[in-house]
């Protein structure tokens, strides 16, 4: 009997775009993008948990297959999503990520599996090259159509942050707690991003030349722009993430970034070589590689 104030009204409008609780699923119909099971804010639990405990918890769900492969049974998944996680020595972070991500992706009715791409050897960490390796290996398993590039220390805070792909590349982690939930700069493309397989192939994947932390996500932004795409982000607070604290120093490699355009056609998926050691966990496929600069040589430009 009284007008809703603006905040309530706004919340109500957002809520109505999601399907009602009594929505009927059909096994031969495509799963919707905005499901009643997607409630919004997630109760994030950042406390440490062992991988054994996570295995025990998810072993109660027989629908999760080897390698963390899952798909809905009550509708046809809109996207087949490969979640690629670059990794080195962050064993305490992986179970925390799975604790949040697996239930969220199930609520989103996506088909998915996890690929943990682990760097061995003494070279500096090469996040971008690991993503390229993960892509190549994932595509051997299934005709995935959506790729999520996911740092192990980024925990989503909202299950309406839909991990499907779109007509344009997607930057999911738009609001990080460590940046006071503000976008550090407009071209920021770090943390969690998503591209269709077609988009990723068109941009020639990530650059392989970025050794050490920093710059490779800016280069990916450049590649996306040069290919004629723009980047979309979740609206409002949907793109909020908590990041697990850890220590590494980022050194943006400006000399490489200045040559983004010249390098794009020469450095990426098309000059990638690697020798993987593949093992399976109940919840992910592990791809271990010893990366060296010689495995991705670039001709002069």
UniProtKB/TrEMBL annotation:
Matching SUPFAM superfamilies: Nucleotide-diphospho-sugar transferases
Catalyzed chemical reaction(s): a beta-D-glucosyl-(1<->1')-N-acylsphing-4-enine + UDP-alpha-D-galactose = a beta-D-Gal-(1->4)-beta-D-Glc-(1<->1)-Cer(d18:1(4E)) + UDP + H(+)
Listed Pfam families: Glyco_transf_7C, Glyco_transf_7N
Protein name (record): Beta-1,4-galactosyltransferase
Assigned GO CC terms: Golgi cisterna membrane; Golgi membrane
Compartments, as annotated in UniProt: Golgi apparatus membrane; Golgi apparatus, Golgi stack membrane
InterPro entries, per database record: Galactosyl_T (IPR003859), Galactosyl_T_C (IPR027791), Galactosyl_T_N (IPR027995), Nucleotide-diphossugar_trans (IPR029044)
Function: Responsible for the synthesis of complex-type N-linked oligosaccharides in many glycoproteins as well as the carbohydrate moieties of glycolipids.
Annotated organism of origin: Hemiprocne comata
Membrane topology: Single-pass type II membrane protein
Similarity-based family: Belongs to the glycosyltransferase 7 family.
Residues covered by the Galactosyltransferase C-terminal domain: 170-247
Segment forming the signal sequence: none
